[in-house]
Amino acid sequence: MAPDAMADARDRVLEEIRGADRFCLVTHEHPDGDALGSLVAMHRVLTELGKDSVMLMAADEFPLPYEYRFFDLSGLSTVPPGDIVDRTIVFLDCGNIDRTPLGIVKGDDVHILNIDHHHDNTRFGTVDLVDPEASCTAEIVWDLMRALGVEPDQELAEALYVGLVTDTGKFMYENTGPRAHVMAAELIAAGVDTHAVYRRLYEDMPFPKLELLARALRRVERHDGGALTMGRVTREDFDATGAEDSYTEGIIDHLRTVEGTKVAALAREIASENGTPVKKVSLRSTDGEVDVSAIARAGGGGGHRQAAGFSTVLGDDELVAFLREQVAAQLAPAST
Amino acid sequence: MAPDAMADARDRVLEEIRGADRFCLVTHEHPDGDALGSLVAMHRVLTELGKDSVMLMAADEFPLPYEYRFFDLSGLSTVPPGDIVDRTIVFLDCGNIDRTPLGIVKGDDVHILNIDHHHDNTRFGTVDLVDPEASCTAEIVWDLMRALGVEPDQELAEALYVGLVTDTGKFMYENTGPRAHVMAAELIAAGVDTHAVYRRLYEDMPFPKLELLARALRRVERHDGGALTMGRVTREDFDATGAEDSYTEGIIDHLRTVEGTKVAALAREIASENGTPVKKVSLRSTDGEVDVSAIARAGGGGGHRQAAGFSTVLGDDELVAFLREQVAAQLAPAST
């Protein structure tokens, strides 16, 4: 989006927020820190402005992963409000309208503000405020909050901070510009208890999570001179440790950081529905040389250039072959 | 140090830097990111001001741990310059004059600027600019740099950024206030390539380092209901993986984050000099409830309240007993 178009979209979103009274906020399925942080922060901004706001999430998202259970979700509904057609629908951190399983479809009668930072956002909104330069969707919400004259209290500041910290990988990813740090400084000055936030997000870690990591690290494989570093978590690992599926979070970062790695992949076996073993595959690109969202799309999934994923019924060997082929295709010198 | 005394010390340091022409910069033994970042940054500030500056480090510090080898150490000497008595000696990030093995002792004829952020700094300088509120020594150097009117180029900015990132644990430790983020924003705007810095510090990780982690995590022990979480790295682990001693860096963070942990300890066997096995013990406190610098001092070492260490010839069981006793003593309700 060109800078002018972005400024226009921002103005339109601000105008719509100021002009409307009733809102329904949604985010993507299996919400992460930025999805939940942006959702809760936007809800608080709207509430602070005296608007009627409902956050909407599917009932089957609960319980949330343990690290996100601290969010104050009062104001949340698991069924669409009866007057949803009269509400402005705000999508937050949602690259694709299909990634929210709420049966909301674009139509003349639904007014959608699409606020996101995913570069591959499908622009499904009535207004699309999509800024891939933003480190996280929370950064866009923070900007809107300031433009709307809302002063953050501690809870609002913490919701935004969670989005910032999780989507920048603790300020480590390439998307972390000066603006992200200015935002952090302001949020801490507004009362964020950083120690408490980090404890909730990254500490108070259930011991089975450490045991799961220990198991996963025992069978790391490197392929193609290390360009593909691959890990696996099996059903047996889950069963032996009592770990939940969400405890695999973070394992892939260990694979990603190994010298020479272009693409890190973690395959975890999830409970199969009808006897067919299903794997969820997470992908990370270490330096942007390989676009893992393209690999994920080839596998039937999606995501960012540097972080993406898909589900598959491929066996272990077939999966490795698929990934090696995909990585090799992107690393091959472009033909002229 | 009271705010007035701190401002005085800062003024005196600035005055000394402006007034003197020749400097010799030192830091603590086994330098970490903040020690090296502050050293290199101060050297560049002084050089930029047209001063004659020498960085001094003991020859046996080399080679540095792989993650710090990128520092530009031109201007470094491993023997004290012949005119050292005529030079202003600047100690950076050095809590105790004994922690630099260079034979520099305080005396009437040695002029020492002691610039540090360790709360237990022994104030050994002619001027002591010791600010425990600073997230890192680099933050103090950054402040001095600005007061001296030096504009950072990319290399100076990166040296400061390395100090900031490593001593705040990627902005995660309690010492990370708004000032740390403002500093980060300015340094990134001055040209820090954050992605390159993080790759050097945390990625491009030799595969044996991941193998060492996998081994260490297999034998984590929890004591006293989890208050003490303890890990070990044995000589066999080093031998089997080919890992260097510095590859143990970061393992303790995994122990620290386990739910319920008050103190995390990692003991690693180092090459024994005369047949007696020696262990280096690193300690971390998770929430400041236990002062691990006191435990380290009881063991003959030192450090910060939340991060400290010592060396010991205790056997495995004796070491566990010592640590349990020390932790229990601090967790016991104070007698009235």
Automatic annotation (TrEMBL), chains A, B:
Domain DHHA1: 248-313
Highest taxon, organism lineage: Bacteria
Name of the featured protein: Bifunctional oligoribonuclease/PAP phosphatase NrnA
Residue ranges of domain DDH in the record: 23-163
Organism: Baekduia soli
GO terms of molecular function: nucleic acid binding
Matching InterPro entries: DDH_dom, DHH_sf, DHHA1_dom, Oligoribo/pAp-PDE_c-di-AMP_PDE
Xref: Pfam families: DHH (PF01368), DHHA1 (PF02272)
